[in-house]
């Protein structure tokens, strides 16, 4: 969820700065220029993104993470600690909501553009072949993410006592202290390298995706122009500071993430709903209403008595996922309505064959009722 640039700067670079340098805006400003300069250069050629990210950056990232995890297993920092109080009541739903901050679901939609574009640039034109490539990429990404998160979860769960972070809820700081505990002064360099490559791959993918999307949406702007504008804008945003970035992004993230989840789930059911747009629209409307309310709550905008009413009437609302049931109901209601229409059309066709055996009045009444139901 955090700015990739600021995330690396805070954990991977700041520990090596003096107190005076950390308080100055100059180091972050210079680093953000260098970071997005590299992003811009690597994102200019979409056809080489798969090779650059898949064959160079990602293997380095995974190797660094593996190094930290293997060291943590070989020389345990301690036993598994007690869960943070935030997770004790409902760990599943709390973890689910915290997962919003990874932006993985949003990124999967955006990065799909990168995969499709890269395959087309490599000469692949058949839709089935492109779909197969996307499925393979998705499976590899899912397996990789699961492995990374499980590994980092182990490091975080086993390190609180050794790092003096018992009861803390600052994952980044905990990870930084764990790396320092495992590798000494070189720990921050190892961790900084991991975060750098993680943030760089994310940044390149997002900037490239924005370039592809907006250049196709607005043909007057070339891909290169959009990539440049997005890179410059990101440089400015990165210098706002972490607190400001979080305060602005969390409410928006809470409001749009459920919509992304629903779109992804419906895409898996597209074969059975025959791509009917009305089902997507209805489900997203029902989801959006409650997602926007959740976003307002996250922004600490007072809702008066509405919040209490929703807590008392909407299932799972207290847990932060009140949008789930309305999304399912919206999709089911529209699907049943469409099935009913198909059935009524069949009845109308059958009724048209009986019109000769009915009186004019009986026929008019019969067709009127069927049309009303339809």
From TrEMBL:
Task: Specify the domain of life of the species encoding this protein.
Answer: Bacteria
Q: Give the keywords, sorted.
A: Amino-acid transport, Cell membrane, Membrane, Transmembrane, Transmembrane helix, Transport
What residues form the membrane-spanning segments?
Answer: 25-44, 56-80, 100-118, 130-157, 177-200, 221-242, 248-269, 278-301, 321-344
One Gene Ontology molecular-function label: L-leucine transmembrane transporter activity
| One of the GO BP terms on file | L-leucine transport
**A Pfam family it matches:** Branch_AA_trans
| Membrane topology label | Multi-pass membrane protein
InterPro entries cross-referenced by the UniProt entry: Brnchd-chn_aa_trnsp_Livcs
Note whether Repeat occurs among the keywords: no
Cell compartment(s), UniProt: Cell membrane
Family, according to the entry, reads as follows: Belongs to the branched chain amino acid transporter family.
Q: What does this protein do?
A: Component of the transport system for branched-chain amino acids.
- NCBIfam families documented for this protein: livcs
Its name, as the record gives it, is Branched-chain amino acid transport system carrier protein
Q: Which organism is it from?
A: Bacillus safensis
- Lineage of the species this protein comes from: Bacteria, Bacillati, Bacillota, Bacilli, Bacillales
